[in-house]
């Protein structure tokens, strides 16, 4: 495998904000029915809200001055009923809108996870795990307020503002004009504040991603072991403290951006009743058209009612601007090109024999052109390569046969093996399984056909049984035990206090290297693939442990097409065919004895391996 690829850089987002807004709105399209219900609830709530000031006007202008007790009682009951109905409508509105918002959040999380599951292996070799986790957890989590309440709040407050303004115009259009004079200024201020917060939010999310990556790496079992054995625990804490300190500054800036300007808007809005009373008093003293006490009080009540949704609308606008930065980061992941995709009409093989053939295969890692370090906007745009990793690879492994691939470090051995299960796609030539190009097969057929046991065994932080059943969810206890026996690990598992229910620990750290390898082999045996790839599966083990694991591998390989990436050449003497890679090309091929007789590359590798074994 090559590990010198440059770090992955996300593609630049579409600068056209309206297009991004339209894309956000499309997220809500599947829930049009529920959103319509929310709209009806909002409209009903707004109408009920503006009814109370008119009832109040009748109380002050008619019921009380004329001493009509019955009318007063009815009007009072009407005001109480309006408050009750409005409260019920608000609860229902919150329930429906929150449900819609959470469904949208679920859709986003699932879409991002699904896209990442289909990304090529190269993406994960270039991207820090913490960065990926931060996109799903922090970025989507940060959008929760927007998708669960902001959209509804926007509709609700906009409807309330419109209904209130209409009611104010019905009472007195002149006072309404006075009340709305400064509204354009308020809108301009809120838009500017929104742009500031959007910029800061983007910086904050990047910092949170950096912290998440640091936590993921340094607080894993491997990170803790490395930090303590290297005496770097204190320095790691100091480095984390610096990262956290940067986040403190960004959080303060994010919360204080435009705070004084928004507070000024609040003060002005709160002072408007005094302005209304003053304007009405001046008008009456100068002989202008007078207003009844009820009309004046009702108007001020409406004007005060206008204050809450107006300020909320302005704040919502700021929040939506801020959320655009989060949506932009999520859309970057959703827009990642899927290089390895299932064909439109995939071939499904009912029974796989396991015949493997490479025909003129070449492969190279593609990277963005150095002239454009961010990569092309078009995923299919011009690319430059780092040079061929594999070139002109031709060989055939008949069903049930065995092939060993050897060569110096960096010769392309692991890359060759990864082309069969399509962890990478060839850049030239073909890889055939039972005569069918693997790029034409459906993913399920390929996953059932090819099993991989690598040097770096991965186990989930779950029970032994759960780890084994990951290969076959419906496996019975008897099938698991049989697979474990074949892998030479059943007796050890049975001797544990909890048996197959024993937790393996983070990345399997409760088990030794050899035990983890045998668990991985048992998992593959349970999967029962006709094609088996062994990628240096015993290279990190001591000789005694290697012998036990090799017995398990022999049991696993029986009757299967086996391709072994060999580190210790003593494990491949009995392979039907051995090919030697150097610089991505096959420089020698034959059986073990034939290659020794040739006394070229393979013989030199065997002599070096023997010297290393003797030194140990």
From TrEMBL:
Domain ABC transmembrane type-1: 37-322
Residue ranges constituting the ABC transporter domain according to the UniProt record: 356-608
SUPFAM superfamilies documented for this protein: ABC transporter transmembrane region, P-loop containing nucleoside triphosphate hydrolases
Region feature Disordered, mapped onto this chain: 363-388
Transmembrane regions: 35-56, 68-89, 161-187, 260-280
Superkingdom, natural source: Bacteria
Record SMART domains: AAA
An MF annotation (GO) of this entry: ATP binding
Topological type in the membrane: Multi-pass membrane protein
Compartments it resides in: Cell membrane
Key word Heme present: no
Keyword annotations: ATP-binding, Membrane, Nucleotide-binding, Transmembrane, Transmembrane helix
Name the record gives this protein: ABC transporter ATP-binding protein
């Amino acid at each position: 495998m090559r590990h010198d690829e440059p770090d992955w850089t996300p593609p630049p987002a579409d600068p056209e904000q309206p297009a991004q807004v339209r894309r956000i709105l499309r997220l809500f399209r599947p829930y049009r029915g529920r959103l319509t219900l929310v709209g009806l609830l909002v409209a009903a709530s707004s109408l009920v809200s503006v009814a109370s000031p008119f009832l109040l006007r009748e109380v002050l202008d008619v019921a009380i001055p004329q001493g009509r007790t019955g009318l007063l009682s009815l009007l009072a009951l009407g005001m109480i009923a309006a408050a009750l109905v409005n409260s019920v409508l608000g609860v229902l509105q919150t329930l429906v809108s929150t449900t819609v918002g959470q469904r949208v959040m679920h859709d986003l999380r699932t879409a991002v996870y699904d896209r990442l599951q289909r990304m090529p292996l190269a993406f994960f070799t270039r991207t820090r795990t913490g960065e990926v986790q931060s996109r799903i957890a922090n970025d989507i989590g940060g959008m929760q307020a927007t998708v669960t309440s902001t959209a509804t709040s926007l509709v609700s407050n906009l409807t309330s503002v419109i209904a209130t303004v209409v009611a104010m115009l019905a009472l007195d259009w002149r006072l309404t004009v006075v009340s709305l004079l400064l509204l354009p200024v308020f809108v301009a201020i809120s838009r500017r504040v929104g742009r500031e917060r959007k910029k800061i939010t983007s910086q904050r999310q990047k910092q949170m991603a950096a912290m998440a990556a640091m936590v993921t790496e340094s607080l894993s079992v491997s990170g803790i072991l490395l930090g303590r054995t290297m005496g770097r625990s204190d320095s790691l804490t100091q480095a984390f403290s610096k990262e956290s300190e940067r986040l403190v500054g960004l959080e303060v800036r994010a919360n204080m951006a435009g705070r004084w300007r928004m507070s000024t808007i609040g003060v002005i809005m709160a002072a408007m009743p005094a302005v209304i009373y003053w304007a009405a008093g001046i008008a009456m003293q100068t002989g202008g058209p007078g207003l009844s006490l009820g009309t004046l009080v009702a108007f001020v009540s409406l004007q005060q009612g206008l204050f809450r949704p107006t300020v909320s609308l302005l704040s919502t606008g700021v929040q939506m601007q801020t959320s655009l930065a989060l949506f932009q980061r999520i859309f970057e992941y959703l827009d990642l090109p899927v290089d390895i995709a299932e064909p439109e009409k995939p071939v499904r093989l009912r029974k796989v024999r396991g015949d493997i053939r490479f025909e003129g295969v070449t492969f190279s890692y593609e990277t963005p052109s150095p002239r454009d370090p961010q990569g092309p906007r078009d995923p299919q745009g011009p690319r430059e390569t780092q040079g061929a990793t594999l070139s002109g690879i031709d060989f055939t492994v008949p069903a049930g046969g065995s092939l060993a691939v050897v060569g110096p470090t960096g010769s392309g051995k692991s890359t060759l093996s990864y082309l069969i299960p399509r962890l990478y796609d060839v850049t030239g030539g073909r890889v055939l399984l039972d005569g069918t190009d693997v790029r034409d097969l459906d993913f399920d057929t390929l996953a059932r056909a090819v099993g991989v046991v690598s040097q770096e065994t991965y186990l989930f932080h779950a029970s032994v049984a759960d780890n084994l059943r990951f290969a076959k969810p419906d496996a019975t206890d008897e099938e698991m035990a049989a697979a474990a026996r074949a892998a030479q690990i059943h007796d050890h598992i049975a001797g544990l206090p909890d048996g197959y229910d024993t937790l393996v620990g983070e990345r399997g750290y409760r088990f030794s290297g050899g035990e983890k390898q045998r668990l991985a082999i048992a998992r593959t045996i349970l999967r029962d693939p006709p094609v088996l790839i062994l990628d240096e599966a015993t290279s990190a083990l001591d000789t005694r442990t290697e012998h036990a694991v090799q017995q398990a591998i022999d049991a696993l390989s029986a009757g299967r097409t086996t391709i072994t990436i060999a580190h210790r050449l003593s494990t491949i003497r009995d392979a039907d065919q051995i090919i030697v890679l150097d610089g991505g090309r096959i420089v020698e091929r034959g059986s073990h004895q034939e290659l020794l007789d040739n006394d070229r590359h393979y013989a030199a590798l065997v002599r070096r391996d023997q010297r290393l074994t003797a030194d140990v």
